[in-house]
Amino acid sequence: MAHCGSSEPSAKAQAQPQQQPQQQQQQQQGSVDQSMKPVLFEIFGEIWTVQSRLGQGVSASVYRVSSGRATTAAVKEFQADTQGGDYGYHKERSVLEDIQGHKNIVTLYGVFTNHSCMGVTTRCLLLELLDVSVSELLVRGSSGTQGGRPQQGHSMWLLQHCARDILEALAFLHREGYVHADLKPRNILWSADDECFKVIDFGLSFKEGNQDVKYIQTDGYRAPEAELQNSLAQAGVEMEGDSGCTAAVDLWSLGIILLEMFSGIKLKDTVRSQEWKDNSAAIVDHIFASNSLVCPAIPVYHLRDLIKSMLLNNPKQRCTAETALLSPFFSIPFAPHIEDLVLLPSPVLRLLNLIDDSHLHNDEEYEDILEDMKEECQKYGSVVSLLIPKENPGKGQVFVEYANSSDSKEAQRLLTGRTFDGKFVVATFYPLSAYKRGYLYQTVQ
Question: Which residues are designated catalytic?
Answer without folding.
Answer: 165, 182
